[in-house]
Amino acid sequence: MLRGDRRFVWPHDVIMNDKYAYYTDHFSYVLGRVDIKTGEAKEIPFPLPKGAGREARNMTGEGDTRAGAPGGGAHELQFDQHGNVIIGMDNGTVKYDPETGRFTGWSAGRAMFGLDPEGNVWNLQRNGDLVKIDLSSEELKRTIFQIPKNRGIYDTDTDSKGRTHLYIWQEGKIGIFDPRTVEYTEYKTPTPMAGPRRGQIDGQDRLWAAEFYAGQLLMFDPDKKLLKEYPLVNGTKPYTAPYAEPYSASADDKNQIVWTHDFSSGRLYRIDMNTGQSTEYMTPSNYEVRDLKVDPAAPRPTVWVPAYRPPSKLVRIEMR
Known about the structure:
By secondary structure, the protein is mainly beta. It is 0% helix and 43% strand. The chain has strands spanning 11-16, 20-25, 30-35, 41-45, 77-79, 85-89, 92-97, 102-106, 114-115, 121-124, 130-133, 142-145, 153-158, 164-168, 173-178, 183-188, 196-201, 207-211, 216-221, 226-231, 249-252, 257-262, 267-272, 278-282, 293-294, 302-307, 313-318. The chain has a 4-stranded antiparallel sheet, with no helix packed on it. A hairpin with a 5-residue loop joins strand 17 and strand 18.
C-alpha cells in the first residue's frame, strides 16, 4: 500500500462542536479546522514539542518502514472540560486554546490517549507503563503507574470516573485501571482474539470497541463486568464471510446507536444499542476510515467521517 505523498492532506481523526470540525493530518503537524456552516477550511501549524514525533526520535526506517513515515503526524483529538483541543502524537501532547489561538506543548504522550474529567491525559508508554500527564501546568508533570505488560495495546480511553480502558487488540482483551484504588483488571473478549482496536465510551461509562479481527462491535460495561458482542452484518458469525474489519466506533447516547465501519470497503454500520440490530450503508466512494465521530449537537443522527486518502475530505452523514 503506497502512502505518504506529503502534498496532500491525510485526515486521521475528527471532533466537532457547534462551530467547527477539527481534524489531524497523519503526515504533518497541523490542526485542521472546518467551519460547519460555511465549509471554510483552515490549517493551523503548531510547534512540535521537543523530542516528539517520528523524525525527532529517529524512527524512520527503523520501527516503521512504511513509505512516508505515516506515524509521524498527529492522531487523536479530544475536547477538555474548557473547550480546548487536545492533540496526541508520538512522545508529545499539544493543547490548542480556540479563544486565544495559543498552542501549549508537552514532550510526553502517545498518538491515542484518554482524557479524564479533570483534564489529565492518560496514555501507555512503549515500555508498558501507564502515565498520567497533568495539563493544568505548562511544566511537564507525570505520574507513572506500573501495570502488567501486554502485547499490542492499540488505544486507550478514560471514563467519567477516571478509569482508563485499554484496547489490548493483539491478545483479545480489555484492561481497565482505576486510579482511586490503583487496581488493574483484564477481561477477555467473548470471541477469542477478536482484536478490539479503537472506539469510544458512552454516557453510561460503557466502552464500545471495534473488533477488527472478528468483524464485530464489543460493548464493555465495567460496573456490571459485562462484555457483549454484536455482528456488523446481522446473523453472521465471527471469522466468516463477509469478513468485515471495523477499525473504530463512536457512540450516540441521544439516539441510542453506535456507528462503526468496514476498513476494507465503503460500508458504514449503525447498530442499535438496545437490540443489536445493524443497518448497513454504502458510502458514495471507497473511503478508507480510521476514525469517525458522532455529532452530539446535531438535531438528527449525524456522524463525521475523515476520508483518509486523497482527494481527502471530511464527510458529514445525516440520517433523515
